[in-house]
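Changelog-adjacent note: as of this version, every example in the card shows the full chain rather than a window. The one below runs 125 residues end to end.
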Amino acid sequence: MGLVVLSVLIQVLTVVHVIRHGRNQAWVLAAVMLSRPGCIAYFVIEIAPGLWGGRTAAAARGRVAKALAPERQLRAARDALDLADTPLNHARSQTRWSNSIGPAMPSSATRRRSAAFSRAMSARC
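Full-length structure tokens:
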């Protein structure tokens, strides 16, 4: 009995949401005729992309990613420096290196490139 009441309540909430937000009226028919599958389809197709695609959701994903892998940006900066030895990549790797969590030493290839870059820059001046 409780499951039937919950199902009807979800259907009513889905129909109200469809009407209030001006969605396609076919969703009303799907929610009423298909019950739970229709409501689930409406949520997945119409509501969920808006929840996960907004600016707030993107900022939250960024905070979670930074908490799970705090040195990801440092690795990306090092990889960019290994790929292309440019002043911009040097600046990024220096900034990421100073802001990283824990001790992080540049690779030997990065140290060689950094020394070569410093010599080249000092020779130009």
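Structural remarks: The chain has seven helices and no strands.
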